Amino acid sequence: MPVSYQSTRGDSATTVGFVEALRRGLAPDGGLYVPQEVPSLPADWARSPSFQDLAVRVIVRWLDGAMEADVVEAAVRDALNFPVPVVPLAGAWEGVHVLELFHGPTLSFKDFGARTMSRLMAASLPAGEEVTVMVATSGDTGSAVADGFSGIPGVRVVLLYPDGQVSPTQERQLIVQREGVVALRVDGTFDDCQRMVKGAFADPDLQGVGLSSANSINIGRLLPQSLYYLWASRAVGKAARICVPSGNLGNLTAAVLAHLGGLEVAGIVAAHNANRFFPDYLSGREASFSRSVPTLSNAMDVGAPSNFERLKWLLGRDKLSALVEGATVTDTETLESMKRVYGETGYVADPHTAVGLEAVRRLRTTWGHGTPVVVASTAHPAKFPESVSQAIGRPPDVPDRLAAFWDRPIAVHGISASGDALRAVILKQARE
């Protein structure tokens, strides 16, 4: 049976198929699209000989009836054509595995969703039709989306990032010139960028532009991200605790979707920095959205996580709190974690991965060491040379594909944190 999607704010009678959910990004009522029923994993998924084979077997079920199976397979294999290593740590960290998600072209986990989305959207876009894909980024999403969607016929990209709140390396990845991409440096926070994107969907002056979103508000971003948790479980050979460095909660929602589809887990950890709304919520403390706080793990600097709405719809508070354990890690603890892990194992972690590793180190005293733990490593350490050098006393090795960004021409426009400013850019791009 084809999978139907409804809004988190709508009723079950109003549903759309995958292609419409992918194209719209946000539901007309402002809610997020969720599957009415999560499809179960194929019985043989764990016997998949490669990550690409696993991806095809699982994604085809999510898109059953929406697109031809051979089209889906071609898109997925082309998008996910890079390795997904699961690296075991040694010594005191025995039993902990780092799921390296940074081997794609922009060196972050966002490549999984962005590349798969772009190819599925291209395959589903009618001839002659155009779409404007908007994306707000606190670090890595924008470059992955820009790289994945650039040059696709009929697709324009508008990316927004907060001025001064991404690392220099991340900014360079965001602003290199790409066909069909406009980069906007916003005088505000990530939450302002996210608010502007959501507001554009409700802007009557933009209704004829054909807007979509590539943030994790788009269900098309989350489905590919659920795949690597399956791959990690296959690698460790048993149900593991999964630790997810978290900000907008999209990566965590992807882990929950994998679990609801049949992945056995011993538990899930949401590892946050000083932006601690979700851990506070999980612990039962009084929690409310607030402005984001800048940290070393900047891609997680989200004060009002969008996917919280999805998680509540999927599980409700009681089940969510029973499945997911929250942890908060300070910048000082992040640097100490990077130094500790490097000194004890030789492994170089970026600040986001270090948040996850510190959460695991702290919580393992209550879990015991009998259950394997998988920590999602969301970005290459070379994207944060300043923090890595401060923590371990030397800069990280820089892959050639990252160094090459500094040789490319750049293009960026500064705008205020207002809907009027964004509207003007979108309309200008649509006319060109």
Principal-axes shape call: globular
β-sheet strand percentage: 15-25%
Oligomer: single chain
Category from helices, strands and their pairing:
alpha/beta
Helix content: 40-55%
Any idea what the CATH architecture of one domain is? 3-Layer(aba) Sandwich
What is the H/E string? EHEHHEEHEHEHEHEHEHEHHEHHEHHEH
Sheet with most strands: strand arrangement: 3-4-12-9-10-11
Unreliable stretches covering 5 or more consecutive residues: none
What is the rounded distance between the termini? 41 Å
Summarize the entry for a quick read:
By secondary structure, this protein is α/β, with parallel strands linked by helices. The protein has helices spanning 18-24, 51-62, 69-79, 110-124, 141-149, 168-175, 190-201, 219-236, 250-260, 277-282, 308-323, 331-345, 351-367, 385-392, 400-403, 419-431, and strands at 5-7, 33-35, 86-88, 96-100, 131-136, 155-162, 181-187, 211-213, 240-245, 265-272, 324-328, 373-377, 413-416.
Describe, in plain words, how this protein is organized in 3D:
This protein is α/β, with parallel strands linked by helices and 432 residues long. It has a domain at 83-109 and 220-399: Rossmann fold. The protein has helices at 18-24, 51-62, 69-79, 110-124, 141-149, 168-175, 190-201, 219-236, 250-260, 277-282, 308-323, 331-345, 351-367, 385-392, 400-403, 419-431; strands at residues 5-7, 33-35, 86-88, 96-100, 131-136, 155-162, 181-187, 211-213, 240-245, 265-272, 324-328, 373-377, 413-416. It has a six-stranded mixed sheet. Strands 8-5-6-7-13 form a five-stranded parallel sheet, with helices on both faces. Helix 3 runs antiparallel to helix 4 (110-124) and helix 4 (110-124) crosses helix 8.
